[in-house]
Amino acid sequence: MSQTVLEINQLETSFTRDKQKIKILRGVNFSVNKGEVVGLVGESGSGKSLTSLSIMQLFHDTTGKIDKGTIKFNDQELTKMTESQMRKLRGKQISMIFQEPMTSLNPVLKIGRQLMESIRLHLNYDKEQSRKHAIEMLKKVGIGRAEELMDEYPHQLSGGMRQRVMIAMAMSCNPSLLIADEPTTALDVTIQAQILELMKGLKQDHETAILLITHDLGVVAEMCDRVVVMYAGEVVEEADVFELFANPKHPYTSGLIRSVPKIGENKEELDSIKGQVPSPSNMPTGCKFAPRCEKAMAICNEAAPPMLNINQNSKCSCWLYEKKDVTVHNE
Asked: Final residue of a domain: which of 152, 174, 196?
């Protein structure tokens, strides 16, 4: 049995607006094992990034709050930890590559200082050791002039360079869990490949568990062992990566895969899923995907489907499978 590094159970997270609580995450369940890459996919607004912020407990200066559920990291319950306790975990045992490198780096501090801060804090290196280690990490992410860059400010770097600095920072302490939120978005194809290889190396050399949040199904196919599909703050399907692409179960997953352009196809219009993700403050009753689903039935508008075990490698929340030979998955 693989060691479970991260286990999320019935997670519900909300924000308050105009004194009204708006639930964003609705009973999210999944786990990540040691040395495993789990992809978290779905359209913008499906709750992927908020799931990562809930794990990291990063709700500073917002009304965000975890209302229910558990987040266990190496058998430690994160939702019960104080900010001081979380600060000791962040950067050392759990690291995150944020989606937007433009705003994730402090604009008034040099790159070297920002890199060395977590290294000195978590690895107990002196200043000279920290600088040497930081330069090595910059070189690992493909930055040739690492020594010079240590003394530069974020505004002097391109978006791709800033993203690589963020990746170097996240990986500098060999975390047990790496959360990567769209880690290759700002990078060209060549650098994307380098970063993905670097993450593979981290997984192989240190058995790092990786939660990869992305819109790019090509990256998912390349990197992931399992895939968790989210829609409207809920997990609608979870499957082995081969099973997911070969035989997607949920109509939403099928729609996502169909929307990817295929080599050799000559279509005037790409396939797309009609409609858009509903607003968290105005969710439909029953299945949240029903208003956009081509296979919707009467029951879909009346009641939310349970999570069902379809087979050994696949789970799905859809009424299409309710009468088939499947079992309800109880978290």
From this structure: 174
